[in-house]
Amino acid sequence: MTTPSSAPTPPTAVLQVRDLRVAIGERVVLQSVSLDIAPGSLTVLMGANGSGKSTLGMALAGHPSYRIDSGSALLDGKELLELPAHERARAGLFVSFQSPPDIPGVKNNLFVRTALNAVRSARGQEPLDAFDFLSSAKDAAKTLGLPATMLGRPVNEGFSGGERKRNELLQLSLLQPRVAMLDEIDSGMDVDGVRTIVEQVQRLRAQGQGLCGLLHRGLHLRAQRRAGIEHAQLLHAHAGEVFQGVGDLRAVVGKDAKQQVFALGGAVAVQPGRNLRQGAA
Prior knowledge:
The chain has 281 residues and is α/β, with parallel strands linked by helices.
């Protein structure tokens, strides 16, 4: 007699966001957003420009322009929203810039090594000296197609759009956060650059990092989950389903999806192959 095998237990989410309401001044940008990001998973949030994707990342990072009116965000069980921005980074949250700024006068290698050693200190690890750091940084830069000479230049000064995004990936690779939110990481990238992103994302997932891509167009990533942001709320879909919002918001969830991203603040009805319909709360 055989007994049916039990379904595998999904991994515990490393980042848990619940009922997050975010405003800028008097304008509410996100009404009620909830999502889980598990170790080694990839979640893609898609939406039109101005739908609130960057707002979600910046609010979680602690940007002072974004006011969180309600909700919670737990990273490894610790409430992120109670921490200042630099402590959120030390706890393991990485948020990339949609348009990475340049920092004149600050060498790239010094900037990244200082950040890395701050993170290592928070983890109880010994700091890296300049020699050991430079060796690992050169290896990472080579993997990402970033010339080693850029390590000695001021941060992003004179960098092209694609080079700035590769530099963000370099920081991500060296800092090894628990969760990374990548805001339009493909913007400004050529075909080879997009391929580099895909390969790097797969490497980071294999290392157990939870990743969240904030995109307004499709990218060839094997996401476990995709969701859309529309009307300041997070819409959801299951594996193999299609959802469609206003304008060009459209996504197909891969069949390897294991968990759903769900929304609060509105009832949602999704059927395979049909459009998403949002009903009354």
